[in-house]
Amino acid sequence: MKKQLLFMLLNMNVGGTEKAFLNMLTEMPPEKYEITVLLLEESGGFLQYIPDYVDIEVIKGYKSIKKILNDPPHITAINLLKKGHLIKASILIFLTLLSKVTKERSQFFNYVLKDIPNIETNYDVAVAYAGPMDIISYFVINKIKAKKKIQWIHFDVTKIGFNQQFAAKIYKKFDKVFVVSNEGKNKLLNYLPSLNEKTDIFLNAISPSSIINMANAEEGFKDNFNGVRILTVGRLTKEKGQDLTIPILAKLKLAGYNVRWYCIGDGGARKEYEDLIKKHGLENDFILLGANPNPYPYMKQCDLYVQPSRHEGYCITLAEAKCFNKPIVSTNFTGAREQIINNQTGLIVNFDEIEMYNTIKKLLDDKGLRREIVKNSQIYINNNTTDIQKLINLVPN
Questions:
Q1: CA-derived radius of gyration, the chain
Q2: Reduced to 3 states, what is the DSSP secondary structure of residue 124?
Q3: Domain 3-205+386-392 adopts which CATH fold?
Q4: Is 265 left (phi over 0), alpha (psi -120 to 50) or beta?
Q5: Do residues 181 and 338 lie in contact, with contact meaning Cβ atoms separated by under 8 Å?
Q6: Closest CA to 187 of 174, 201, 173
Q7: What is the rounded CA–CA span in Å between residue 316 and residue 19?
Q8: How much is the pTM?
Q9: What is the pLDDT of residues 109-161, one digit of tens each?
């Protein structure tokens, strides 16, 4: 009899976490596991890549509570009062104040989710995998039945709005907590040492052979540029740090370098970045290519890959870029030093415009250094899909 596994996420937007999830799914044989993906929103460019044998379910009623969860409480209260919902507005104001006093939102979630039915299926394993983690963690613990429950941490808990009080209350109810890097695990346990016995590392899964096949399946750059191509892949958000790279390119152009910088990804900061590109006069040289579920032809063809993130949990785009043995520059986010040996398989810098500029300039000037990094990178290609056994071991017999 197949084991029933459920993974809960916000949506399937094109991003590293979602890609890691898809990679992990391919390692789970459908003859052994009946897998359900539970989404808050049925959307995202990676939705079409979920295998046919996986069931996709969507939380009914999420649209009706999304604004309550995401909008500032006073805005929600005002809107409710305008509609004549005095009691509901009063309850939400009270629960918001209670959340501020207790410094966690369990009672708030309990009220907001009261009209959303529990999931009736009794799963062997239920996983709070990715998304707005507090609401997903709460939902998996309180509204899903499963023999084992797992919490997944993809982010740096010291950087993203991590509610320590909420996590202390909810995470202890999970049977296992997976963190996607060793450094990330240490940071979590520094906050919540009581989780030590149930916390383990689960590296985001990549499959180099699959990545290289996808790189060969499609065309990449189409602009016939004959200079040095620099590539960055990631959502257009402040955490991914593309705003750091635009003035750096301006300095490189001013110094006479024939370079062009390309970004694959989309997100809420696109308009801000377009304005910054225009401010520096880089409309023809800093190219926003948009979201693309297959960035690998570009990784294969670029001359230099740069990961400028302010923070990460385990940067899967960095792991993927390593498959193509390119010179890499990365900021020193959580997990970077677990992927790159500084000055051997890449260069790690602080999140600093001048430091990154000087490092990229050094790589452009020193062909010998670029060749040495490429040579060393060929030795260290790794396949992280082996961690799948840690998940399989948790499935009840």
A1: 22
A2: strand
A3: Rossmann fold (3.40.50)
A4: left
A5: yes
A6: 201
A7: 8
A8: 0.86
A9: 999 899 899 999 999 999 999 876 799 999 999 999 999 999 999 989 988 77
